[in-house]
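Reading a protein record of the kind used here takes only a little practice. An example makes this concrete, so a full record is given next.
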Amino acid sequence: EICACLVGSEMCIRDRYWQDAMFGTPELDDFHPDVIYIHTNWRNLTALPTTADSEAAIDAMLDEQYAHFETMWQALEQKFSCPVIQNNFDRPNFRLMGNRDIWDPHGRSNFISRLNQKFYAYAASHEHFYINDIDYLSADYGLTAWGDAFFWHMYKYAICLDAIPSLANSVANIIKSLYGRNKKALVLDLDNTLWGGIVGDDGVDGLAIGPEVPEGQVYAEFQSYCKALKSIGVILAVDSKNDEANALAGLNHPDGVLRPDDFVAIKANWDPKDLNLKAIASELNLGADSFVFALSLIHILRCRRTLG
C-alpha cells in the first residue's frame, strides 16, 4: 500500500479527516505515505449560505471554508512531503432555489462552485497537489443516485455503494499518473471505427462520416475526440486489416477530421493485428500496457473512459 486515505464521513465527527491531518495519529505517522487522498464531499462543509446572509457574510464564509482546507494541505505538505489528492465538492442532489441556486450568491450550488474554483487555483499553483473531480463524477453518474440519502443515513457513506468503483477508478488514474503509468497511445482500427462501412468494399464515397447522416456524425465526433487527445500529447496510430492505399483514401475523406499526418504510424496491411501492435510498440519504444486499442464503434465509449 502506498496511499493513506483521510475520510470525512461520520456526521458527528465530520472534521475527523482534518484532525487526523493536523494533529496526526500513530497509524498515519507510522505509515509514511507516498500519496495522501482526502475523501470529502459537500456534507463536510461546516457552513453553507442562507437567504438571511449578506453577500459580505457569504464571502467571509467562503474564505473561512477555503482556509480550513488550505491550512490542512500545507500542514500535510510540511509533514509528509508527498503528493496530496483532494476531492473537489459535488453538489447536493436538491436545489433549494431551483435554477437560481447556481447564480445567486445565496445558493448552495453557487457557493460550492466558487469554493471549487479556489481549490483549482491552489492546484494550479502547487505542483504536487491534485484534484479528484467528484463534481464531474457525480454529474456523470447522476446526482440523485450518487447522493442517495439512504446510504448516508444508514451507513454514513458519502456516495451510493454502486458509485464507489467510479470513485476508485478516478483516484487510481491520478495515482497511476504520479508513477508514469497512464496510457500514452491510442491505436485505431479504421473500418467501423473511424468511419461507418468498409472502405475496400464501399469506396470512399460510400463511407458514413460527416453531417449527412446520424451515423456519420457519430464517427466524425469520435475523430474530433481523437484529435483533441492528440492535442494533449496522446500518440495516435492505425492498426487495420486493409490495403494501405484504401486506408489513406479513407483518412483523406473530405468530411473526416483526422488526416494521415495525425498518426505516428499507420499499419494498414493483412498481418495479424497483434503483430502490428507489437511492431508499433517497438517502433515507439513503449510497453504494450501503454496502449489503448479501439477496434469497433462499440469500444468507443470504453476507450474514452479509459483515456479519461
User: Anything to note?
Assistant: The chain has a mean pLDDT of 91. Residues 55-80 form the longest helix (26 residues). Residues 223 and 258 are 6 Å apart (CA to CA).
